[in-house]
Amino acid sequence: MSREKARMDPRVRRTREMLWNALIALLYEKDYNKIRVNEIAERATLNRTTFYLHFNSKEDLLNQCFEEIMSELIHSIAMTPEEFNYEIDEPHPILVRLFEQIAIHASFYRTIMMEDKLQHLTRRMTKIMEQFITSGVSQIQADGIGFVVSTDIAIRYFTMAYMGVIGWWLENHMPYTPRHMAMQLTRMSSRGPLDRDPYLEKQSSPRP
Question: Which percentage of the chain shows pLDDT scores above 70?
Answer without folding.
Answer: 87
